[in-house]
Amino acid sequence: MNLLHIDAFDRAAFDRARAASPALAEQLRAGLALYPSGFEALALDVFALFFKLNLARRAPEASWEGRTALARQVLDGLTQAPELAALRQETALDEARATFAATRALAWVLQRLTQHGAGAAQSLGDEARLAEAEARLEELEAQRDALHAMSEAREDLDPDALHAVQEDLRDAIQGATQERRALLQQQRLRLDRQQAQAQTALRDVVSGLPARMEQAAAYAKTHGAAFGADGAQDATAALELGEELAHNPALKRLADLTGAFRDYARGLRTAPLERRPAEVHHITLGDDLSRALPAEQAMLLHPTLRLEVLRRMTERQLLQVAVRGDDKAGRGPVVICLDGSGSMRGEKETWAKAVALTLLDLARRQRRAVEVITFAGQPSDLRRFALAQAPPRGASLAAAPVRTADVLAFARYFPNGGTDFQQPLDAALAALQRDKALRGGDIVLITDGEAHLSDVWLKRFLEAKRRLECSIYAVLVDVGQQTLRPDTVARFADRVTSVRQLTAENARDLFLKLGG
Length: 516
What we know:
By secondary structure, this protein is α/β, with parallel strands linked by helices. The protein contains 18 helices and 8 strands.
């Protein structure tokens, strides 16, 4: 039962918030495990408190009412905070900010449910028993009402048997009522003892939320692009990313390093003299706006003619140049195999993931699918992250969309094991084979070590590579004191470079080839 009046609009907004916010989804999962009888209703009430434009409470049947008692205490604590009115000016009808505020308030609720060890377990046990008692009482009262309706409708019932059943139900209801009353009394005493502390804590939550939201928004704006949180990103995900960046120095360092790589790589892409060799071959029809004739591109500035250009682009009727050059890479997927062995822990991990995120940025702007395969020494270490999906042909010209939650999951994951190249490279080839319509995908192996490669495997791998017409790049993580030998990766990679060379002349090929 909800304490606030909740309509279909509020429920739909809450469902969208749950889908968009991994933090809220995890809180609901944890809360329902601890407090199954009332946590979801509590969470919806807290979200509605921040989201609804006009608040209205249901009339309480009692000062404390079983399954809703905890929700009443939380709502009372939040609504009595003097700062709530100003906060609601920022969160009302704003799903992203209402979700941000709700998750912070629910984090306090979860902490309270678990922070006192045995005492918390006892309290949760009492709440469970109370919920069971209320459910049992409701069932008995429903049986009593059904029996009364049947006795009124039928005259052929045995009066003595009917009376006996009614007496049994009356006794059962009386016993369930007494049990509920005793459990309610215990709940009142328990919540009364915690009332002052809860009110102070919830006021602190409310008073601190405006500054936390602004900080999260600022971090998402300045550092979020490293994780795909650009202008097309969902606002809820962007705020959660900013919150994590503000309190996670390792992720902030990764974002800073990725930003430096990204700026350098984008600079290479836009420098006209650094493009791969190519020449205009003839005029053709197609849907590649970057190769459209200047007259076609100029019409995009006209409010009416722009629609005509877009129509012809979706029909592959744009006048565009056909180029001929030596680049055979195509526009297939980019699969990044990232070494998560123990020797990569620390600075090397940060540099390796910064390279991977830079390649994600370049590839998604070319509307290419990107998958990262993190590996170590065992099959169980292998984990795939589908970070960007290629938009369908004829879709918007925007970059391939990225789910920030998936990028963050990749940034956090580190298996910390041995080193085996064969499993991830086989998985990368399998990923390229999934879309048989695309040729010329790219595989990038980022590692600091060497691994054994059997001759049989290598022969089979190189044959599959030629069949798929894919390119393989190896990036050696040569930060720190270890001196690497590229002998192993040179046996299968088309090009080998290192992170120290990624700002030097001989690293341009990697960024140009994958992003140009």
